[in-house]
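Teaching assistant's notes for section 4

Start the section by putting this record on the projector. Ask students to predict, before seeing the second block, whether Cbb3-type cytochrome c oxidase subunit will look compact or extended. Collect guesses on the board.
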Amino acid sequence: MTDKVFPGESNTGHVWDDNLRELTNDPPRWWTIAFWASVIWWIVYGIIYPTWPVSLEGANKGLLGWTQIQEYQQGVAEIQAVRAEFEDQIKAKTAKEILADPGLTDYTVASAKVLFGDNCAACHAAGGAGNPGFPVLADDNWIYGGSIETIQQSITMGRQGVMTAHGKILSAQEIDTLANLAVNLSQGKSDPDGMTLFTQKGCIACHGPDAKGMQVLGSANLTDSIWRFTPGGFESAKYTITHGVNDGTDPQTREAQMPSFKDRLDEAAIKKLAVYVYRLGGGQ
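Reveal the predicted structure now:
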């Protein structure tokens, strides 16, 4: 019956909806060639490369003996061979000498990005933008100084400044006056009464007679608009004056400590980070 409806057509005799039928034509020649070529390719691939398991120990090793680990190790060796020239120079030179070589500096900065991300970004954020409560490294404001030698020393030895808690030393009114002074100085405003108290209470011993801070002590410059502890302003300054910084006698003191990396990183890695941080903020 099918042949009468569709004369001369090769089909299985299965017809649906009057004209939908299953044909028995051979597939196109190009498809047949591609199919058998893929089968042959699969067999050859399985012989050359490790493919199917042949024992409990794993797959056959293949004629080439190729492994992903082996290819990875070769790639690492090639990269290390390219880097070796630069890495040897970094080990032999000081951080200052590295900065004097533009090509070596570019390599050092590029290779230090991962180091910075692994060791520094948790506090100082990506690109040195500074997380809340931690110093910004992308500006040119340095608490302990921005020379390449000082930055390297900070990374190597760590930093921990101290400010005495004045909550039990000064009256509430005096603390308010000094907090207002900090705000006024940050805005470039004159505050004669505040400066008088600032001098009388010995604040100049750490912050200097001009309130610009002393890098040797790590004391903050009160005359710029950069606040060491966020969000800054009157209440922030008042809290710092009252409870101090790293003052063990006050349980509410602010904590500000940078750990030492001398036991975590080798000298070459520390030099890389020093150059990277120096370039972030422009250095001094």
